[in-house]
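Case study B.
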Amino acid sequence: MVKSLFDRYQMKSGFDEMFESANVPRRHYRRLVERLRNFPLKDLELKRRQADQAFLRQGITFTVYGDSQQTEKIFPFDLMPRIIPDSEWRFIEEGIRQRVRALNMFLVDLYGDQRILNEKVVPRELIESSVHFQKDLVGFCPPKGVFIHVSGIDLVRNHEGEYFVLEDNLRTPSGISYVLENRLVMKQLFPNLFADMQVRPVDQYPTQLLENLKGLAPLGKENPTVVLLTPGVFNSAYFEHSFLSLQMGIQMVEGRDLVVESDKVYMKTTQGLEQVDVIYRRVDDAFLDPEVFRKDSVLGVPGLVRAYRAGHVALANGIGNGIADDKAVYTFVPKMIDYYLGEKPILHNVPTYLCGIPEDRKYVLDHLGSLVVKAVAESGGYGMLMGPSSTKAEQEEFRKKIEANPRSYIAQPVVTLSHHPCVVDGEENLRLVGRHVDLRPFVLWGEDITLSLGGLTRVALKEGSLVVNSSQGGGSKDTWVLYGDE
Amino acid sequence: MLSRTAESFFWIGRYVERAEYIARFVNVHYHLLTEIATREDQANIWTRYLEDTGELEAYQAIYGEVLTRPVMEFVTLCRDNPNSLTNLIACARNNARGIQDQLSSEVWHFMNDFYLSLKGKTELDLWSDTHDLLRHVRNTCYTLDGVMGGTMVHDEGWNFYRLGKNIERGGRTARLIDIPVLSDPTTEPRRISEYHQCLAALKSASAFEAYRKFYSAQLVPKRIVQFLLFHNKFPRSVRFTTTQTSKLVERLAGNSRRAETRQVIRLSGALAADLEFGSLEEVYSTGLSAFLAQVLEQLDQLSNLVAQAFFRTSGYSTSSQSQSQAV
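Model:
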């Protein structure tokens, strides 16, 4: 006799998102657990296969870098949804709005008067030594003073369930397509489950994004031409680029489709040139314009920055945001919130050591075995050392790297991330096991600051792993924000 | 429409049409050859095919001697042959992937499914059920055309797709006719292998049944050439495709007065007229092979002119990094 999925679930130490104690679900999970308790495991297995098929067929895949075959993989999808009650979500929303507002003020300041540097709240040296600080753009303020049109803020929870900000993504954050597709697939697989679960919808995101983008058009443009600029099919987030273009009904372009003439941007069409007013760019600063940034970039558009500075084209996100989501600058965000807003941070940072500061560096080098070391300039889970699971050789390698280039590294204590039950293969049947999760809400800045309802919950599907990035074997699950608290 | 998008539509049409012809050709010949022909006849047919498509050297570099089985592996699954069925479908799918935002989701899913269904195929699959694999490719190509036509707006993109398809189709049919047994209008097929070659030419263009309705079952080289070259209602005759091509070019050019566009209109119009008013006497006085070579050359030129006129906005060729597609 096959038992219910939940019967054999074993809680681990740390914060469990779903269960308070063995077999006692948290209040906001009670209905879900009730509904799934009697769900036949065989059917669940079928559902899981259908989900995988749906992702593969639709080509919802990402490209694995460093793989000569350019393998396309699906981002593994876990069937068990993550639930966030209304009151908790309001708290997250408030915290993120505060944070993004402060970060944007920081960018306006840095590329303007630099008060925060002059008053030594943030060390000038830290900013000026960063490759992400675009010195040439000092003195340029983008339309309406907005740099951060789209961002993704990564949150984790510690052993007590308290939310922390792990990372800000202010350049070209990706993942929203998975949020939307995960929901679509869940609704197809479990239509009945949604009926009485009081789940708030997620699908207004593309409409909101398009509205915001249109609002950026140079003054007087009635029906602005908005395009999405993608690096192309080999980019790991290419699926998302085409997905969002399709959802918004805008043209997706590559750098080679655009040309700049008299500081105006045009796309090359079969009927000649057509002017472009707003570019939602998913190409990094470094590749955006070979006239200004990397000369060898073939992904960008020569002259784009000229057109941007002349005010003939709007870019989302602005140029130079990388300085504000630099992992070292991250340490100063609580100070920014105090400095610009005179408020206390609602969401806290994970404690962080800057290897550029001598005392911090000494501490880090003495404790390599228990810390997480991250390269400041890397993202996506590349270039990091997970202290507790690392070998001596790996630690020595990082010691050398840190000593050679201290500014480039930070370290954080290992946070015991919360875990969430996930459906995995068992010996005979599927079984439920706890896996670490994080949460990336997506933030849009237009007339107001709006958040995707919920965001992307990423799962470290490898047992014990704390790295949730898709490139490192992570998966994702549907994330439900409820209308109420249960 | 973006020039790059137009170019991708055009090449989806060409790649899929090419795959369809190859699948049909190989299936027909494999079927006939295994039953009847001698080893030499087999080798001759494959050698001529590889010469025609310009692939003989590439083949010999990998497999050496021309034999039925390795040739079939080369044209269907070989990774190193850019024109193998799997590579053609992968190319079509990659083009589709690059313009996903311009396709209906039905087309994209179908295309992606098609690609996935071939991706893992090995020689084992080919030899365990050869007909099944080839039929699968051929039928899926047919169906894709239906999915495109039935779910997409019939605008520029659709017309570029059809333009690519028709240019490819005309060229492929022309190559089918260019065989010795058809080149002499006075003969009738005597040897059994000659008879089979006539049959294979028709079947490779999916034209045997249509031909039979028109001329009864008797296989007469002159009539076969007449049918595949000049028939005005059969969709794979060279004439039919050049007429379509000319119409499509005019539609795509609209009122444009650009010199490049006018040139495409002129050439496609001339080619359509040549086939519309051409006659068998003319063909045979020029020589069948020479006549077909001219047609093929003009189709090549047309393809180049289309690229110049529509895929690269003139004056910006330096910044255009238009991907070069395998022809």
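The mean pLDDT of chain B is 90. The remaining cases will be described in the next quarterly update.
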